Amino acid sequence: MFAHPAYTPSTMFCVFWVALIAPLVSGVAVTIPLSVSGDAPGVTGNLVSLSIEQDRWLDWVGNTSRNSFFFNTLDNLVALTGSDPTIRIGADSEDHTQFSAAVQFVQQVFPPPTATVPYPEATNIVAGPGFYQAAKFLPSGTGVTWGVNFGGKNLTATFLETRAIITAFASPALKNAGITLDFLELGNEADLYKNNGLRASTYSISQYTAEWITFATNMTRTANLAGSNTRIWGAAFADSSHSSTGFSPQGIFANNILSSEPGGFINTISQHHYSGSFCSGNGGLLQDLMTKATIRSNLSSFTPDIQATQDRNLDYVFGETNSYSCHGAPGVSNTAGAALWTLDYALFASQLGISKVFFHEGIGYKYNLIQPAVLTRSILNGSPLATPQQPHVQPQYYAAIIAAEAIGNSGQTQAVELSISNTRISGYAFYEGGALKRAVFINSLAFLAGATNRTSTHLDLTFSGSGTKPKSFSVKRLVIKHADDASGLTWGGQTYETADARVGGTPSSETGTVAGGIDIPATQAIMISF
Ligand SMILES: *[C@@H]1O[C@H](CO)[C@@H](O)[C@H](O)[C@H]1NC(C)=O
Ligand SMILES: *[C@@H]1O[C@H](CO)[C@@H](O)[C@H](O)[C@H]1NC(C)=O
Ligand SMILES: *[C@@H]1O[C@H](CO)[C@@H](O)[C@H](O)[C@H]1NC(C)=O
Ligand SMILES: *[C@@H]1O[C@H](CO)[C@@H](O)[C@H](O)[C@H]1NC(C)=O
Ligand SMILES: *[C@@H]1O[C@H](CO)[C@@H](O)[C@H](O)[C@H]1NC(C)=O
């Protein structure tokens, strides 16, 4: 009946009336195991982490004083999980950075903004001691991965930068706060050097590995890695050939990177990934991003790499990722739908053995979780803003909060994906000490602005395995008006869209019963706690 557009006022009334008392609900069976064994995937509170484009690092953290907005966004997650934040600083601008002791903070050259790239990356960055020292403004306990220039193929630059990073982390301010240099990374996306002019067009994985070993030997000795807890992230490629003859973890392993002196300090392989590159967006593209099947196919293609990495007892992370390259697609990457993508993407990644997912961020990028600085140009098209936009969180930040609450502060949470036979509903259950605590469900059907019907899916809940069957639960909902909204979300009735990034508003309270099940409208995530 809804397919016919011949509405009269009375049929309109009828449609609304029917929708009000009997929303378009379909039922889906969900079986939740009451317990898991020790080999179910572990999830740490910093599963959702940040990768920061280093050119404007000081705009994130602060130069002479702390950027408290950014600090609060991280501290909120610490309060929920008890886990120390982990951040990576580097990316494209890592290969365009030099160190100079004569510069106090940083000097840099930016290309002019364009409509598709309103906030371009600096082409040239000269960092001074204060640039690295500013890491002291991070929350106490933060673990940092710092990227060092390899693209420039200048050993002096690699050496001076390494020494500056080590000096900063050895200073009392950082040591006393327990802010640690967990990892160094040498070079960003070296598989692209043959396309971007940093190396010859014939640059191969064997040439890369040999050259990396030479530079990394200097980095390793300069940083005295043998006498410290700092280790190295290997690979950090933009893509993967998944083969031993191309750029991939398998490729560096086949070229014996791990038996080299610096390779002995690689204990983590980092992979970069974007779901595509779109410099303009639309509702269809947003639905593609959110779709359960495309999230799974994007991530599952890395299964051979994860296996090859784990076979060598190394950890595997997504060291840089986000929705669409081009700093995000306008009206897609910056929206509430992207928050649902972020949540499903990070949680599904955990199921494949990806231990952390570092979402890439830069000042004014469309796909940010956080905009920590005042913006004077539109992130969507670069046009000047009549009123500067104050620091704020974007919709994806709610995904970090929801993942943090679902994982909780046990320090030993495990998560399993629930098998749900529905193309739009995904679900995960969370366990502490092997016992069921919470579940998250995501309805990734895009309800876009201007659409008229919003379906809802009923989940029929049953339990499997041994343990006490809960009879009731409390509910928190990520309420989204439209998938393409850029703001106005609430989580359990509360907002993080506040001037200081601290949670605001009054919590809502909702409970449900297992016998009654629960409804989840299109474009919503819910967490139920038993
Ligand atoms: C420090 O940051 C503030 C705020 O972003 C900026 O106005 C100021 O110019 C910066 N100072 C230096 C020395 O870079
Ligand atoms: C690293 O390279 C720099 C620049 O060539 C050199 O001065 C330094 O002695 C090297 N350090 C080590 C430990 O090889
Ligand atoms: C190499 O790096 C050093 C230190 O950053 C810099 O002074 C020098 O100009 C660089 N050399 C080239 C050829 O770029
Ligand atoms: C990744 O997801 C995008 C949608 O965001 C889709 O267009 C693309 O085909 C997917 N890639 C893979 C390898 O599944
Ligand atoms: C709107 O209704 C149609 C027909 O029932 C359904 O296929 C579509 O998924 C619905 N859209 C939303 C956002 O619920």
Automatic annotation (TrEMBL):
Residues 427-527 form the Beta-glucuronidase C-terminal domain. The keyword Signal applies. It comes from the Eukaryota. Coiled coil: none annotated. It holds the Pfam family Glyco_hydro_79C. GO terms for molecular function: hydrolase activity. The keyword Cell membrane does not apply. Residues 1-27 form the signal peptide. InterPro entries: GH, GH79_Enzymes, GlcAase_C. Keywords: Hydrolase, Signal. PANTHER family: BETA-GLUCURONIDASE (PTHR36183), BETA-GLUCURONIDASE C-TERMINAL DOMAIN-CONTAINING PROTEIN (PTHR36183:SF2). This is Glycoside hydrolase family 79 protein. It comes from Mycena rosella.
